[in-house]
# Entry
Amino acid sequence: MALNVYNYLTRDKEPFNPITEGEVKMYVCGPTVYDHAHIGHGKTYTSMDVIVRYLRYSGYRVTYVQNITDVGHILDTGEDRILKGARRDRIEPMQVVETYMRSYLDDMDALKNTRPDIMPRAAAHVPEQIEATEKLIELGHAYEANGSVYFDVKSWENYGRLSGRKIEEQEESGRIETRTEKRNPEDFALWKAAPPEHILQWHSPWGRGYPGWHIECTAMATKYLGETFDIHGGGLENMFPHNECEMAQSEAMTGKNYSNYWLLTGSLTRDGVKMSKSLGNSLRIADLLKQYPAEVLRLFVLSAHYRGPIDISDDAIVAAQKGWERLVGPYNQAKQMLSAGAADSDDSGIDAIIADTKAKFIAEMDDDFNTPKAIAHLFDFVHKANTILNGDVPVAASTLEALVAMYDELVEGVLGLLPSGAGQGDETAAERQDGLIKLLIDLRAQARVNKDYATSDQIRDQLKELGVSLEDGKDGTKYRIAS
Ligand SMILES: [Zn+2]
# Structure
């Protein structure tokens, strides 16, 4: 079965056909870096990460672009978010941007989200945004008023195509003083005139000012991915007005389709309430990571479909923690059994079980990246694997290696759920641990040869305290880790 995706543009599940065979050009709206990221951002970007990982797993060459908004994202109050952050933290606006961009990248790295290939910053693309604005004026889709430039929504009949909102239904969100200079209340700013005291401002054909929020995504997406690209992703909460405006101005500018597929993620609530700074109920990713491994947070996010909403609560995270421990149990056990030495052959039938699990996993992921169902098949596998690993028949190294390889491929490669440092062919944490224990076993053996029993006992006893018990046999010393 080939990949099918739910496209918000058509409100339908469609076969996925990229513009160039084997290649995917994907743009995702990134964060406005004026505060620390909360777990709502974690949901959006982890969902997008798994989509990118799965596309790559399926053999596509993906170019993944995610912008950093460091100018132009205006609050309902008319205040620029970066300037608000600067006032709150009493630091320079560009220090706000640097501080929270680094914090965001740290959080995303800690959550094991793959870094985008390009992370363009809006403030570094002001000439491109001015150029796009000039072109829209030339084409009659934008007009200048008192040093600001607005997109004329009535000049573009497809405005509303993505969100399904009609112009008449839309509420006015502009500032009082700008309302009078707009032709239609729904017109949105491509460029804003800046008062002299405004810190973030650039020279433009319309005087000094700064770009609007929507135009940055048009300028940067088309610059790095072309006028038409394959996938536009982001959070559903940005579909209107941001994505709608972005699409309207892009298509009005180029006369071509902007993104062929729109993949948008559902929201995250906390105990049933929308998470927001003003309600004081937002959970920072960094704080959650002090309590739970990244993989637990990833499993929590992926246990719901990316398009759907998800509710975070203590119970939900504890359930995810238990689920994760169960999921990685056979992997950890197989690794330990491999280092302790395994049988030459068995008839576990693991190859057929793995082939079946993989086929089911892929079928679910091909169905609009259905992670909850794909993960359910992995749990079926866990059940079967536990029966094999804990049975009376000795398990062969080939069985254990096949199991580990499947975990590396699907559980870590696609979902990023193996314990950090494990998998992906690097010298893993498990291998390092194994090496360290064996080193201590060698040192203990050496101490015994030297009749230094105090040292040999100390090594044995302290390892035992750490949950590692040593068993001396005729083939040397083996170890076992308490689970
Ligand atoms: Zn955007």
Q: What stands out?
A: The first helix runs from residue 39 to 57. The pocket of zinc ion is lined by residues 29, 217, 242, 246 (CB under 6 Å).
